Amino acid sequence: MTLDEIKAPIALVMEDFERKFKGSMKSSVPLLDRITHYIVKRKGKQMRPMFVFLAAGMCGGIKEATHRAAALIELLHTATLVHDDVVDDSNERRGFFSINALWKNKIAVLVGDYLLSKGLLLSVENNDHDLLKIVSEAVKVMSEGELMQIEKARKLNISEDIYFEIIRQKTASLIASCCACGAASAGADELTVKKMHQFGECIGIAFQVKDDLFDYGPDGIIGKPTGIDIKESKMTLPLIYCLNHADRNLKRRIINTVKNHNTDDTRVKEVIAYVKQSGGIEYAISKMKEYESRAFSLLDGFEEGIYKEKLKQLVRFTTERES
Description:
This protein is mainly α. The protein contains 15 helices and 2 strands.
């Protein structure tokens, strides 16, 4: 199942959203317009707005507020990505030059601030305080997750519980806010909004575990070369499982590689081999499937229909994608 097939029932809505989203980024400053045009042009898979619109469709119907919810999430999320690239000193984003690579850090930070303020104003001017609360909470939690990861990564002492808490905050909170905002924009009650938030959280965790698995797959089949996370000293679920099941000497060698020899391709391949031998890949797949199953069970109470079916397909896409 492709994303275009999943998107089919909301294809026209998404086209309308793209036009409105471009309009929401307009500025009277030519430099800002050039930069925001560049941002819009390199849009990714657009899974976040898809979750917003499909959730709204299932929870009462897509309304004008749903478009604002999707725009709010995209504006605030794009702002965090622009700032992240500055913090990480990253020159690339999705295969394109990052904003800071093209226009330098000062401009990138100001563009991120501008996008953040546009999102806030969009909500305040339309009295979408419920949507603003959901998304603002997500941005707060994402920041906490990033800081927790930085703190723990220094010693590589991330337990499985801490790992899941970090990805819940860093990745899952945003997808959770997409689903919750979609439901809220459709006029759903508080209990339904909360259930959709939990649904999105489960998908987000499954999504990140799938992303972890890409680090151990064969080159050419996946969206990134193997060992990238290891080279960046990132603790993934398969690696944590491997460390938990390694003897003291092997554990010390793996940690030494990840901390001090992560640019040595031979040592990195050695760690990948250890992870595969330990059963770390199979374990991560089982946890990913567990969260996928939880997501499906949260949809049980909703009426059958095209939006529910497409949401299920979108969940499967997150765990079966190859990039």
